[in-house]
Amino acid sequence: MPLNKADRKPNLIIRCAMAADISAIRKLCRKVYGDIDAYTYTQDQLRGQMASFPDGQFVATFDDTLVGYCASFQIDEETAFAPHSWSGITGNGFAARHDPEGDWLYGMEVFVDPDYRGHRIGQRLYSMRKNLATEMRLKGVVFGGRIPSLAKRWKTFGSAEAYIQAVNEKKVRDSVLSFQMRNGFEVIGVLKDYWPED
Predict the structure, then answer these.
(1) DSSP bridge pairs for 70
(2) Over the chain, what is the mean pLDDT?
(3) C-beta of residue 125 within 8 angstroms of C-beta of residue 58
(4) Chain-centre distance of CA 194, in angstroms?
(5) pLDDT in tens, 19-34
(6) Using CA atoms, how far apart are residues 61 and 57, in angstroms rounded to an integer?
(7) N or C: where does the chain have the smaller number of CB atoms within 10 Å of the terminal CB?
């Protein structure tokens, strides 16, 4: 006898993103970041990400509802560790800088539906990235991590470096940076004007 939907445990699935997901990814992006054009991916950008590096784009679905997105591409070490902006390194959000010979996986985006936080979806998306880097025998995963909460605390800290140090010492919790550090990443420097809107 088949189980009633209410009697079974919901399914959380992490898989590669497909063109059929684009509308749901855009809807989730607006929900997470608000209706600000600078934060909302266009259909063409998402198609570009998937076309540039299909294996590096992941979605999380919870009972067939898209609840998370993760975008990545390969890049060479010199470019990855040189000063850059988000727009510059991602090819304006298209993942156009993807280099199949690149020795690092660059994480350009992760977002999770706020209604589904607490299910470790972000952590699972990060794990997919780490697994992909391992499978491809890359040197690791690198990304520019945003610290949008710094603006509200600027008077207290006076610099990004002082704020990062306080987060690292667990004197302050930052929703983005603390999460990244809990997932095994470490700060190697500050990228000036990485995302100027911050």
Answers:
(1) 58, 110
(2) 91
(3) yes
(4) 14
(5) 999 999 999 999 998 8
(6) 13
(7) N
